[in-house]
Amino acid sequence: MSGDQEVVLHGRDAWGAPRTWRLRTTGTVEAGSVLRTAEGKLNTGDRVVLRTLPPASAVQPEISQVWLDNEIRAVTRTTRLYRAERPPAELPRLLGYQFDSDKPFALLTGYSSTGAATAVGRLLDSQRTEFTVSLLRALAHLDAVDLVHGNVGLPALRLDGSSVRLVNFEHAVLGGEPSRSGVWPPAHHGDDVLAAGRLLYEVYTGVPTTGDGHPSGTAVPWLRSLLSGVFADNPHERPSAVDLLRRVNAAAPAPSDDQDAALHRGRARFDTVRSVKSAGYPPQAPPSATAAGPAPRPHDRMGAER
Amino acid sequence: MTRLVDVVDLRPGASSGIDPDGPAIRNVASRIVVVDLASRSAENHSRYHQLATIGQVREIVLVLVGPMTTDEHGSPALRLSSMLGQACVTLWVGSEVGVRWEGGTDRGRQSEPEVEDGLADLLRVLGSRPVFDEVVRRVREIPFHVASPATDVVHPSVQPAELTTLLLRALRQMSGTNDQAPASEEPAAGKRAGTGTAAAVVPRSPLHRRRAAAQQRLADAVAATAALRRWNGAFTTGGDAACERVALAGAALEAHRTIALEAVSLVQRLPAPDDDALAAMGVPHPQAVDHSAVAATTGALLKGRLRSGSLLGASRALRHLANSQAGRDANVNAFTTRVALERPESARANRWSPVLAVLPVVLATCFATAALPVSGIAAGPVSAALWLGLLAFLLTRRPPGGPATGKVLAVVGATAVAGVAGGLLVPPMVPVPEPFEALVCGLSVLVSLTALVLVWRAQVDRWTSTLLLGQAATVHEGLVGLVDEFVVGRQGSADLRRRTADAALLLAGGCDDVRAVFTETCSESPVDGDVRTGNHHDLVDVIHRDLERISTTALDESVRAIASGAPLTAEPGLVALRARTLTKEYVDYLRRSGGHRRPPMGAVDARGALEEAFWEDSVDARRVLKASGREEMRQLCHLSDIRRLNPDWSGVRVIRFAPEHVLELFGVIGHEIVDTDQDVVGVLRLVPLRRDVVRRVAPPLSADPGGDL
């Protein structure tokens, strides 16, 4: 896929409705990702990013298919759980996907294709704080929807000024699922926090952390207090992204939207009708509790959708 | 740097020099060295024509490589195309390795097989414009303008390949993946930028008012408790008033604590302290920044780290400087909770002890007065009433604490009644005189009053011991110190620290950019860095200094921007562009002129040691410069070719050349030695060919000189 190319894509949007997109791709870009990434423009003029399988010669198709599925699943989840009116600027949004054809793809809203590696080195003081807050907000968003990115690092970051967008979700899984094809321990949000901590340490000091993830040099006191606990061996003992946001005096991002909100009115009506029908039957539990029931676990929702 | 002499290599498979088919050929220098095979020289007419007709080309040195061909009679001949015309002189290199030959009747010897390419040496020295011009001038004095060259070239310092290796090593060292110096071990420059000392909390600001109020109230409370303890404390002050003062002091201290902590949290807030909010509290605005001082601090750190380490080390040290601008967070642990001025559960034990201690006195005085034979009947009850009355008064004026008033009065009353009753009921033993009775009454009153004052004191002391006024004063002083040193000092230097941090980060980013350029230069270099090198400490040091200067020059713009006080932005690519240009020019210069002459972008005053070392090691250079041309030299032909040369000394031409600094060093300027701009000292011997071996060949009439061959 090199050079300008007209592409017509058939797939589904984040809510499962069939859609067709016409776009002009402007060639594959190096995106620091194992998936093939191309920039493009819809015929509406909106910039998009098209993520597809890498060539079969590079990676076994079964493996790359899992990566693309991970990306589709994760971005569908963030897109659905955050309402379109106020999408988190720190995460990509899904326009559409296709996973059960021979040419699967994920179509995302456009973001800069170049990694943040060199740009991060040029951030000035206040911009570094904005960068930090922005990165932590991205993690807090993921934490809120129970996703673990699994590959937080400079190649997966895009910088717009000093604010971050976290992309490349090919290794993203739900918390507790086996990370990276099952050979790694169960994914935990602490994994992303650790990776972000190493990244921040490197960005602030210019000194990379050692292989086991611990800072190699001495850091200034406030950086130590910002990252305190982040390098704990047990992911459960690491602070959450929201904890870290608090340490930099930044507010936690708004919680994800209640996707059952649309059902509330219907449920209320069900309760009313039911109470009318069952009038006269003395033993009756409080209607709202029984009718609404426990909210479905996020896993179940995802499972049902797949 | 524009090249003054270009090389065009027409040999098949040649990769160096200017591509004769490329676009660059139209922009060659006015002097060109054309390299071709001797065997093809009679056929390349159109190519020669093309070169000779380039407008700016004035002089051509044609270097023909390889054995001669034969003429129409089968005898060896060097066939020369006539297309290059009068602008051209020709050097014939029969063998690139050459033979050792003294000239004259010497028959020559084979060169050592490992000797390096003589043709490369020749082309290299021809690349110097003065040498080129001299070669053209001297070969024109030779028949047919054709000569066989002999070379003796000495690199005064190091071989080119060795120099490249040293350069690569220095580049890697400057990029510095192994810079182990920890960033935290910075000298004074690594400390925080100076803190403002002159500033103080603005008078009559909220912060100042609350501080003064807390101070005043605490002093009031201390004074009130002291007054309460005096013998007449119950009359003048009273417990309630003292209690109220203490409460007021507590409230004032709390107000002070709140605003001080708010100021602390504002001043150490991320991303940036809220200057206006702090100013509203009474913390003065940050002091103006001395931008040239910031530029000096950061620039000095940069240069110091480059001198002792590498770009990586400099980048880390600068980042550390930036990070340390934030300073330590204030230790507010001592002030996190509200300061209570009274211990909550205060000295419950022995609440009755002063009362119990006074009971015997009550009993004794009441008994003694009531037992008086004459006045006992009146004095006893009066004594009891006096006790109860004064005690009741003290109890209403007492500070909080101690047993309930009613109980105390009941117990004391019962004791007094018991004393009076006992005194009245005991029959008088002996008659006592009246003055004695008066004395007993007076003593009783005195003892009673003394006991009451002591009881009052005990009561007040017990209450005072539950107060934490001393501790409160310490907290107050702590808060004052916190605000003065931490908040005001920090806020005073806030702009300076922000600017210093930004400046350091700007330079750190620049260091990373330069580093990337150096790394890129290393990876682009065609020579593998594994050539064995001698001990060239001085030269390595000079190259390091040069690279330092290139780094700082590339960052000059940034330092100027810092000093100017303009808003800082890291323009991506500017530093890298500058560094790339400088580095490329430097590498070209080094490859051409060696490390001994200071390149325009090189370090100043770095080459003294190098010259000294050179002076000691320059035996070869001196020998070459003294050469007459009759010594054994490397004649670039085969042994069998010697007989085709004309060794008659009158026709031989000798050119000696050396760089200016060598000439100066040896004091030989003006001894007919060509001043080359390259790092070579050498001698060229140009020997004419015998007249019968040179043939001029014109292109066939049918051939179109401009067409393709």
TrEMBL record, chain A:
This is Protein kinase domain-containing protein. It comes from the Bacteria. Residues 297-306 have a biased composition (Basic and acidic residues). Residues 252-306 are annotated as: Disordered.
From TrEMBL, chain B:
Keywords: Membrane, Transmembrane, Transmembrane helix. The chain crosses the membrane at residues 378-396, 408-430, 436-456. Residues 175-198 are annotated as: Disordered. This is Uncharacterized protein.
